């Protein structure tokens, strides 16, 4: 049997011992605790007496009472229900699920970083400020732009920051424009961020290559267009070949070019956004710069800009005066602040450590390898899956379920079946311009052996789709839970334990 | 390179299978003019050992909890983090996973978020909470945007000075394009919100009232007044948004759900997350069920699988940007999952009794510090209810006091004149369970020497 | 795909049953099929005014959300409130129990499609 031969001796899903675990709110017993406090001898009377009675709350009914062992087992069991990069291949397109180096976790946990306060003053934070200053400079060098803000907390947060700066720039010139052009392959955050800046999103159709057509762009590029918001490489994993013409068309009409830097992992040390004519870019430190995704965050989304936009950067920025590092808040044209304090410093430490570990050559090698790995998968998989844009890709490639549709198998089924083979599925149904898209991003931290196993699994699923489609359609079978009823979840939302009761 | 498994020779083999001659061929789609011809000017590579030494050196160039004692809060609070929090959140099944888009292999993260949502509802006494947002300030900005969406015709946002100045700045930045009329209201001599001034500004134009409790000066606002104000706000059809920046206070103070809040936002950092110079932090967002489809951010819901087993999924996603694009309730595309997990573990460790006791100890320590300082000549403190923070009017400039404290390795409080120019010589001090009697006495000694 | 001959249609896939001065409105069989399981619907208040070709509410499935467009202008005289509690009838019986609102007024009816024209329109959309 084909399936057996693929699985023999390989890292694929098996039925391990997975324990059930109720909610914390269904556990514990009265008077049980996992907490201890130092003896306090500061006050004789109960502190409740210090407050007017109406202000005082009773103990919160519903909070659990557990011992330390209960808590440890609870969260350890939960953790075992997760797939993770440390368990295996996680080829989510556009998410850059690369390995997260362990030393970076240790460094971010140093007490001289964690137990520090944002208002403790410049002179008593010189190590922290130096790290931030140097990271600003490294990121500016990597993207070929002039100034950086480390403040935004995530990619979409960086988009909002960048678009607000573009808005401030045009307002300053006395021509507040109304529209933003966004290619139809864009991430959903792009139009959503533009809408927050009160811009009308104008969709630009991709051409037959899957790229921006300079001619179509020129037609759409009117005087009231504030910016073009693009992604390069785009969400098909393709480099915008006409990028120089594209940025020229926009600049000629007084517009600016915003780049969603989600896909930077293809380009570090190879090409720079600044050299392409891009004016603003956000970077996802949790993608290209290896900081962990954390089950959905925290990440960080610094923004880099050309010199003419620097006055609008959020405050504060980190600067250097002689040999002292300082936080600078007096910037009259700044858009203000997009979050409290100075940025997600704990994440910045990890990115800084990663860049130093890699060095210029290592960063370049990472991008090159990521591109080789993606093209390897593209070449291998196109024998079994429809590849709508068959050309050299960058860090990711996008397939569709077209060939499998004939047997009633759709992208969702292929994705779920991959779980039975021990892999996390790719990003699915995105970008929207590919019907039934499967968007695969291997990153540089996967070995050829892993890629070959993934190819074998994808080949097996393509075979099953023809010969035994039910096994694909009814997947997954080896996971802790099977397919979940999302309709019920949305029709009768049960969002807390008390809804459940 | 230790993070890249494929060696150059393996790479060559792969290039042959891709049917290209050289690595260069894979980049032939990039125009010659933009192809970088030289190496980036970036230091490194460094070994793991060198890296550790370098960052260790940097980390020691700061004041930190290992070499100083801190009496500062102002939006970021030091609390003891039980050892199990970092051990459990440090399991790589949690921190190296992505957003739980594939529920069958993400039940750990999903159940943890469901528990977090429940915890936040219990603390705030609201009906629904999301999976978290970037931080308290951006959560507040999202709350104001939501209020504007619910009543698009109303442009007045009442936001008194007793809300943290950085939070106010963030709200204003987020709403730069929304044509909003921000109405500032001053505070009284004893650092309470000027409620009479607020009442005068409530009208049919009011979209929402934003309050912070305890407020930025540490004062606990009058409970009955808050109830009365919320009634007035609701009479005109506006929303009341309550910000809680120190959630430990909810262990002893009446929750916002009891004084009429429609939306409660807050900062979850004090719940088991280190301050780390101000981030990553944890935005809390809770509201009433009637508003669930208007709220921003991810939500996890319970459902069943095809065998009838309980399971969890991301739900009500049609509010979000990947489906609704420019019509989404927010552009947010993430949450602070790992920080939320830390908060849940922390609350599980504390439990019902521990959370209460911790709140009591904070109040005790802050009260002791306040009592001791008020006995020193020249230092004045308003007699208002507090939780773990309070304002002290000093006989000298705050910078002089901070300097004297620093000489004894004490990081004093926030110089309020930084945000309130008329509050010269006013310092905002904080004491939590981390500040022992000995610490407080030592600080008071320094202050005594300043008179 | 069911397209009743006695109804009029919009290009946004709403149907209109015109009886005298009162128009009953819902979404077509094709639309409910495309959306999948409907999980939520938001309808206008009784006595509010709707305008032809403008949004009068929203409809959501698990993975999609869209606006509902009024086929005619007029005053809402009846709202199918039960759908907001349980929207299943929209999937099960789109032209019957799945009706959404009744509007008094027929302004804009001239712009509506006949069953034949609507069928052609759907074919075009499918082949795009």
- Helix % of chain B is 25-40%
- In quaternary terms, these chains amount to heterotrimer
Runs of chain B with pLDDT <50, length 5+? none
CATH class descriptor of chain C: Mainly Beta
How far apart lie the N and C ends of chain C? 18 Å
The CATH homologous superfamily name of chain C equals RNA polymerase II/Efflux pump adaptor protein, barrel-sandwich hybrid domain
Q: Count helical runs of chain B.
A: 13
Supply the helix-strand structural class of chain C. alpha+beta
CATH level-four homologous superfamily name of the largest domain in chain B: Type I PLP-dependent aspartate aminotransferase-like (Major domain)
Number of domains of chain C: 1
- CATH architecture heading of chain C: Beta Barrel
Query: What's the CATH architecture of the largest domain in chain B?
Result: 3-Layer(aba) Sandwich
**CATH topological fold name of chain C:** OB fold (Dihydrolipoamide Acetyltransferase, E2P)
Q: Kindly report how far apart the N and C termini of chain B lie.
A: 61 Å
Structure report:
The complex is a heterotrimer of chains A (501), B (451) and C (128). Chain A has helices at 2-7, 68-79, 102-108, 111-114, 126-143, 155-172, 189-196, 214-220, 243-252, 345-381, 402-405, 411-420, 448-467, 469-473, 486-491, 497-500; strands spanning 147-149, 179-183, 200-204, 225-231, 256-260, 280-282, 303-305, 317-321, 324-328, 397-400, 427-428, 437-440. Chain A is α/β, with parallel strands linked by helices and 501 residues long. Chain A has a seven-stranded mixed sheet with strand order 1-7-6-5-4-2-3, sandwiched between helices. A three-stranded antiparallel sheet of chain A has the order 10-12-11, covered by helices on one side. A two-stranded antiparallel ribbon of chain A has the order 8-9. In chain A, helix 3 runs antiparallel to helix 10. Chain B has a seven-stranded mixed sheet with strand order 2-8-7-6-5-3-4, sandwiched between helices. Chain B has a three-stranded antiparallel sheet with strand order 11-14-13, covered by helices on one side. Chain B has two domains: 69-81 and 351-448, Alpha-Beta Complex (Aspartate Aminotransferase, domain 1), CATH 3.90.1150; 83-346, 3-Layer(aba) Sandwich (Aspartate Aminotransferase, domain 2). In chain B, strand 9 (300-304) and strand 10 (310-314) form a beta hairpin. In chain B, helix 6 (136-150) crosses helix 7. Chain B is 36% helix and 13% strand. With 451 residues, chain B is α/β, with parallel strands linked by helices. Chain B starts with 7 loop residues before the first helix and ends with a helix. With 128 residues, chain C is of the alpha+beta class. In chain C, strand 2 (14-19) and strand 3 (22-27) form a beta hairpin. Chain C has one domain (8-94, 104-127): OB fold (Dihydrolipoamide Acetyltransferase, E2P) (Beta Barrel). In chain C, the strands form two sheets. Chain C has a six-stranded antiparallel sheet. Chain C is built from four helices and nine strands. Chains in contact: A-B, A-C, B-C. The interface between A and C is small, with 4 and 8 residues.
């Amino acid at each position: 049997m084909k399936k057996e031969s693929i699985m023999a001796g390989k890292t694929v899903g098996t039925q391990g011992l997975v324990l059930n675990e109720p909610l914390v709110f269904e556990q514990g017993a009265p008077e049980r605790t996992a907490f201890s406090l130092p003896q306090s001898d500061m006050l004789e009377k109960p502190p409740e007496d210090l407050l007017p009675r109406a202000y005082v709350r009773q103990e919160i009914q519903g909070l659990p009472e557990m011992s330390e062992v209960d808590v440890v087992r609870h969260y350890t069991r939960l953790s075992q229900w997760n797939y993770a990069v440390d368990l295996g291949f996680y080829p989510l397109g556009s998410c850059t699920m690369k390995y997260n180096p362990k030393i970076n976790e240790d460094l971010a946990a140093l007490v001289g970083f964690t137990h520090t306060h944002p208002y403790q003053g410049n002179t008593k934070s010189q190590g922290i400020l130096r790290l931030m200053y140097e990271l600003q400079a490294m990121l500016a060098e990597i993207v070929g732009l002039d100034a950086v803000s480390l403040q935004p907390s995530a990619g979409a947060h960086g988009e909002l920051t960048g678009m607000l700066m573009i808005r401030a720039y045009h307002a300053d010139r006395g021509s507040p424009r109304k529209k933003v052009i966004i290619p139809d392959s864009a991430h959903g955050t792009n139009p959503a961020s533009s809408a927050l800046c009160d811009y009308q999103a104008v969709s630009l159709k991709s051409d037959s290559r899957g790229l921006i057509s300079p001619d179509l762009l020129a037609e759409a590029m009117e005087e009231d267009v504030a910016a073009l918001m693009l992604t390069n490489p785009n969400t098909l994993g393709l480099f915008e070949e006409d990028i120089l013409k594209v940025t020229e068309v926009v600049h000629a009409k007084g517009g600016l070019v915003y780049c969603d830097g989600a896909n930077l992992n293809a380009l570090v040390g190879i090409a720079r956004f600044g050299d392409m004519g891009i004016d603003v870019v956000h970077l996802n430190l949790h993608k290209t710069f290896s900081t962990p995704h954390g089950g959905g965050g925290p990440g960080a989304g610094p923004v880099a800009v050309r010199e003419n936009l620097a006055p609008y950067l959020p405050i504060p920025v980190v600067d250097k005066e002689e040999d002292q590092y300082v936080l600078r808040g007096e910037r009259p044209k700044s858009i203000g602040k997009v979050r409290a304090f100075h940025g997600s410093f704990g994440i910045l430490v990890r990115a800084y450590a990663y860049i130093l570990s890699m060095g210029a050559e290592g960063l370049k090698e990472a991008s090159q390898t990521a591109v080789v790995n993606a093209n390897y998968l593209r070449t291998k998989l196109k024998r079994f899956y429809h590849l709508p844009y068959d050309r050299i890709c960058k860090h990711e490639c996008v397939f569709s379920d077209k060939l499998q549709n004939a047997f009633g198998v759709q992208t969702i089924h292929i994705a779920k079946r991959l779980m039975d083979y021990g892999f996390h599925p790719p990003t699915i149904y995105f970008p929207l311009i590919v019907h039934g898209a499967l968007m695969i991003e291997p990153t540089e931290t996967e070995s050829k052996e892993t890629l070959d196993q993934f190819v074998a699994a994808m080949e097996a699923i393509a075979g099953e789709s023809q010969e035994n489609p039910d096994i694909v359609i009814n997947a997954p079978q080896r996971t802790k839970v099977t397919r979940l009823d999302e309709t019920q979840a949305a029709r009768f939302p049960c969002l807390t334990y008390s809804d459940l009761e | 390179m230790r993070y890249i498994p494929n060696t150059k020779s393996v790479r060559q083999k792969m290039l042959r299978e891709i049917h290209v001659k050289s690595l260069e061929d894979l980049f032939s789609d990039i125009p010659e003019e933009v192809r970088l011809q030289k190496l980036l000017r970036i230091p490194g590579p460094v070994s793991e050992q060198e890296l550790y030494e370098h960052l260790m050196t940097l980390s020691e160039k700061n004041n930190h909890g290992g070499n100083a004692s801190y009496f500062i809060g102002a939006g970021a609070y030091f609390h003891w983090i039980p050892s199990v929090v970092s051990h459990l959140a440090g399991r790589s099944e949690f921190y190296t996973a992505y957003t739980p888009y594939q529920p069958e292999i993400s039940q750990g993260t999903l159940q943890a978020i469901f528990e977090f949502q429940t915890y936040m509802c219990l603390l705030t006494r609201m009906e629904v909470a999301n999976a978290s947002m970037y931080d308290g300030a951006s959560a507040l900005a999202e709350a104001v945007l939501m209020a504007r969406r619910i009543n698009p015709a109303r442009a007045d946002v009442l936001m008194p000075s007793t809300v943290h100045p950085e939070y106010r700045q963030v709200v204003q930045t987020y709403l730069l394009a929304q044509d909003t009329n921000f109405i500032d209201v001053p505070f009284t001599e004893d650092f309470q919100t000027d409620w009479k001034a607020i009442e005068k500004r409530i009208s049919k134009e009011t979209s929402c009232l934003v309050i912070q409790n305890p407020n930025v000066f540490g004062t606990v606002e009058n409970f009955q007044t808050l109830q009365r104000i919320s009634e007035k706000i609701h009479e005109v059809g506006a929303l009341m948004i309550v910000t809680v920046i120190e959630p430990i206070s909810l262990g002893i103070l009446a929750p916002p759900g009891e004084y009429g809040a429609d939306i409660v936002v807050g900062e979850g950092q004090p719940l088991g997350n280190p301050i780390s110079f101000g981030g990553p932090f944890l935005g809390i967002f809770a509201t009433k069920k009637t508003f669930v489809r208007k709220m921003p951010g991810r939500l996890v819901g319970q459902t069943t699988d095809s065998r009838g087993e309980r399971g969890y999924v991301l739900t009500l996603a049609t509010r979000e940007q990947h489906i609704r694009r420019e019509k989404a309730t927010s552009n947010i595309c993430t949450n602070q999952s790992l920080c939320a997990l830390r908060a849940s573990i922390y609350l599980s460790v504390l439990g019902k009794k521990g959370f209460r006791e911790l709140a009591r100890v904070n109040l005790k320590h802050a009260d002791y510090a306040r009592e001791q300082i008020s006995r020193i000549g020249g230092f004045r403190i308003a007699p208002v209810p507090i939780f773990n923070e309070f304002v002290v009017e000093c006989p000298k400039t705050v910078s002089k006091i901070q300097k004297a404290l620093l000489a004894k390795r004490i990081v004093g409080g926030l110089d309020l004149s930084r945000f309130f120019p008329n509050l010269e010589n006013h310092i905002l001090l904080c004491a939590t369970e981390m500040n022992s009697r000995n610490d407080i006495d030592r600080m008071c000694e320094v202050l005594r020497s300043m008179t | 795909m069911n397209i009743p001959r006695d109804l009029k249609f919009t290009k946004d896939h709403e149907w209109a049953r015109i009886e005298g001065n009162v128009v009953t409105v819902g979404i077509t069989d094709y639309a409910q099929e495309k959306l999948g399981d409907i999980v939520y619907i938001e309808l206008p208040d009784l006595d509010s005014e709707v305008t032809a070709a403008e949004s009068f509410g929203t409809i959501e499935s698990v993975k999609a959300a869209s606006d509902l467009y009024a086929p005619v202008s007029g005053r809402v005289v009846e709202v199918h409130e039960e759908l907001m509690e349980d929207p299943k009838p929209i999937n099960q019986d789109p032209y019957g129990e799945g009706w959404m609102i009744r509007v008094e007024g027929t302004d804009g009816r001239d712009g509506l499609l006949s069953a034949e024209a609507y069928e052609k329109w759907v074919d075009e959309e499918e082949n795009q």
